[in-house]
Amino acid sequence: MEQETSYHSLKELQSTLVNNAENNFIQFLYKMFDQFNVDKMLRDYRVGTAVSWHNATVFWQIDQEEKIRGGKIISYNKMGKRTKYINWIHATQIKNKEINSFHLKQCLFGLHLTNQAQKVIAIVESEKTACIMSLLFDKYIWLAAGSLSGLTESKLKPLRDRKIILYPDLGISEKTKSPFEQWCLKQKYFEKKGFDVAISDLLERKGNEMHKREGYDLADYFLENNSNKPRKLISGHHQKYISLYMKNKNLKTLIDVFDLEDENGDQIYLL
User: Fold this and answer.
1) pLDDT at 174
2) Reported pTM
3) Is the pLDDT reported for residue 23 higher than 80?
4) Are β-strands 163-166 and 196-199 bridged in parallel, bridged antiparallel, or unpaired?
5) Which of 270, 170, 265 lies closest to 230 in space, CA to CA?
6) What's domain 111-220's architecture?
7) What is the C-alpha to C-alpha distance for residues 82 and 217, in angstroms, rounded to an integer?
8) Taking each helix axis from N to C terminus, what angle separates 24-32 and 35-45, rounded to the nearest 10 degrees?
9) In the β-sheet with 48-50, what is the strand arrangement from edge to edge?
10) Host H or E run for residue 76
């Protein structure tokens, strides 16, 4: 018989929604994006701070019934890069003898947001990537599997009736298959199981060898390319898109990453 799933209380979650000024990941986001949008994202995903654990970031896993399944703690440096320190709220509670045991049954990070809209579901590997991409491209609801191996059928079950697109990280294919190859196999398996799931090869097409060695994800690609100003715009509606670019400097990356087209169906290029 399967062990009963453990849950955290709302009070436990709310106790982490403090001390943003000492949270390296949140402060990094404030430097890169509009503060109003970051604050909204933090509220939506309920991203917290582990005050007693180096002010690391807490990514709460909340299911479609608003039950809090777990709090994953990840430490970042001031540049927004993940350190080697990863923990779980329940593990710290057990260590501090606040609880005796906890049966963790994970769900996709951000799963609770799928109740709010019927948008396409985009699944990435890391919680950080989901947060950043939600700030950039809100056409999708961005969820995270938590790791390369974290994309499982049990986690996908609540999304059986939704359109899903997988966005794996880049990686080198040597002893094991690349992240894209591994998720391709999973995509085919899920499709046979009746899920409406596709996989994006955007990073495979646009990433270079350095990106693959570094294991770039969509967020990395966006942050790197966001600083490159376009020299020329190619479209049937030049002035219109130049004006849009002046209002939204993320436009180049949106066009690059998502192959956007103009109203005539022609590819837009920012060079």
Assistant:
1) 62
2) 0.84
3) yes
4) parallel
5) 270
6) 3-Layer(aba) Sandwich (3.40)
7) 13
8) 140
9) 48-50, 56-62, 68-76, 82-88
10) strand 68-76
247: pLDDT strictly greater than 60? no
pLDDT in tens, 196-242: 999 998 888 887 888 888 888 888 888 887 655 433 333 344 444 44
Query: Would you list the domain boundaries of the chain?
Result: 10-95, 111-220, 226-270
Q: Which range, of 81-95, 147-161, 249-263, averages the lowest pLDDT? A: 249-263
Q: Rounded CA gap, 153 and 185, in Å? A: 13
